[in-house]
Every structure is written in C-alpha cells, then in structure tokens.
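Low affinity Fe/Cu permease (Azospirillum picis), 154 aa
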Amino acid sequence: MISDAFSRFARWMERQSGRPGAFVTAFAVVLVWAVTGPLFHFSDTWQLVINTGTTIVTFLMVFIIQNAQNRDTQAIHLKLDELIRATHSARNGMIDLEEMSEAELAKVKSSFEKLAKAADCLDHRIDEKVERAVEREVDEELDERGLSDAKASR
C-alpha cells in the first residue's frame, strides 16, 4: 500500500521535475532569494534559507531519482531477458547476469573479449578473401577485354 503510493508519487515527481516548468520555478525561487539579499542585508539567516531549502530538495530528490533508475533498470533487464529468451541462438544463461558475482561477471566478460578477438580475426580473413576475389574478377575482366597488359602495370 505505502510502496504503491510512493511509486505513483515518485513517477509523478519524476515526470514533473523533468519539465521546463520545474526549472523555471527553481530559477524563480533562486531569483527571488537573490533579490531579497539586500533586504535582509545578506545575513547568515538569508543564506541559511537557500542552503536549507536546496539541501532538503536535493535529499528528497535522491530517493525519487533512485526509484526511477531502479524501475527503469528493471524494465530494461526484463526487456533484454525477453529478447534473449525469444532468440533461439542466444544463451539463456545470460538472463541472470545481474545476479552474478563480480568474479563470475569478469569471467563472462573475458569470454566475450575472446569472442570479439576471434570475430575480428575472422573479419580480417574475410576481407582478405573478398579482396583477392575482386582482384581475380578484375583480372578476368581485363583478360576478356584484351587489356591484360594493363594488368601488368598495376
């Protein structure tokens, strides 16, 4: 009950605090505070008002932002889990990566780095094969047109 109410409130605050109106309101508060400085002779109390206000707002916003990030992260994980589950060639063991220890994650990362190096090596080999095939096709085309002498100058 309280958790649901907080979640609804956090989503509402998250949406409101990201709007231009929230920035304009905050800017107006700071402007009013700055303009009232001479009125209060730039006293310690005058400074304390803005410091206390911004500290309280910052403190409370930390919880709102953390709630939003947790929810977004969980939604992203669920979407990725669904993609992994639906892709037949994917490894279903990847679904629970966020639950692994640092050592287990390092091991998975290392295996992906090895895969990337192998794929890069394969890419170079494929590029070389394509380049040779293209050169053969060009040579054959030049031969057919009777321009094989031009081939020697290349």
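The chain has five helices and no strands. The longest helix spans residues 44-86. ok done for today
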